[in-house]
């Protein structure tokens, strides 16, 4: 069986150790000959890499491993680029969340003005990775889950239309796991779904078991009462995420015939989100105090003891969709997966040039999107507004246009007026000087 070479871009990510453990667990179906880490922050990456090196030496010494900040070393001789960079890291996420809140607007990693600010930082970073891949390993595929995936995907559609890049998100997978649990199934893989929308902005229209039995009635009944919080608790979930899963109950009520993505809460209940936010302590603070701190201290402990048992790192089982995607391409498995792809007629009454999240059959030539048909006015209206925001952000980045970015922030359903949008924009420009193009 062929063995693959992978580079993880954003080697210093809090998710990297979990992904390494997940890759090790999946070696039978996705055999590896080499793993490389690439990051532009050598110090941060080294802490993660040294611990991963120990884990790899213990569990799979035959896999070559290296970590580097040199693009040529990183991107030469690779079959897959797994990309999860965060341009500006957590301190900039904190600003994305806190600046809008100062103006009474919600602060979120990928939604509203915060997501737009993050998009303006990410576009250049991800395009640079695509260029390195095309230069040093032109036959490779990039599996990108760097956020904000909607804006990044639109930027690659516009600027790198022929690049072998697939944009993907784990939120539908997380929600489907909860649906499976609610329906009494062992795994979401026992379900087949129809879903349409934009990234972090979509709806399920069909959820069936593999025999074709409709699971929506039982899921609907549960969500109407409890949102996506299953009766029997699974792994512990942080309070802020639990609130999001619970709030799905109210999001669902706006269209009881479908099941919503949890991220719609930010667009449909922005007042609720603001009222439940602490402007001095946002999700970025929670992550820095918990996930980031825990992952980095576990890695330091493993490195100083020289053995993996010295630190507790959790396998990212949910991230096995990355292996599903890689094997679909590598072995032409024709797996059905939700991906972010050009609409191109899949949603018949929607912009063919929008990047949409829909089921695709994935094989060695990439994704073949399935037809999702005609969508109702409510979803179409919401999606048209949001896709215009995402396109305006990418145009603002390309043209270095202040006006287009002001229009984008103004048009976000999370922002009440052009006055507020301008005030937020001016504050965001101030703190993003090192990352955004200078706007005219
Ligand atoms: P993190 O800050 O811990 O890690 C990101 C790493 O990227 C850092 O080590 C940083 O130095 C590096 N980096 C930043 N800019 C870079 C550049 N231009 N080139 C190379 N490396 C660069 O962040 P995290 O919380 O672990 O998240 C990583 C990314 O994964 C984020 O974009 C996050 O939103 C995304 N993510 C996406 C999904 C999804 O559903 N699509 C799920 C989970 C995480
Ligand atoms: C989900 C989304 C990701 C997002 C993450 C944020 O997994 O699909 O796109 O980055 O949540 O989680 P965090 O714990 O960093 O707030
Ligand atoms: Mn996501």
Automatic annotation (TrEMBL):
The lineage of its organism: Bacteria, Pseudomonadati, Pseudomonadota, Gammaproteobacteria, Enterobacterales. Binds 1 NAD(+) per subunit. It comes from the Bacteria. It comes from Proteus cibi. Belongs to the glycosyl hydrolase 4 family. This is 6-phospho-alpha-glucosidase. Residues 195-415 form the Glycosyl hydrolase family 4 C-terminal domain. Keywords: Glycosidase, Hydrolase, Manganese, Membrane, Metal-binding, NAD, Transmembrane, Transmembrane helix. The keyword Metal-binding applies. It holds the Pfam family Glyco_hydro_4. The chain crosses the membrane at residues 6-24. PANTHER family: 6-PHOSPHO-BETA-GLUCOSIDASE-RELATED, MALTOSE-6'-PHOSPHATE GLUCOSIDASE. SUPFAM superfamilies: LDH C-terminal domain-like (SSF56327), NAD(P)-binding Rossmann-fold domains (SSF51735). Its cofactor is NAD(+).
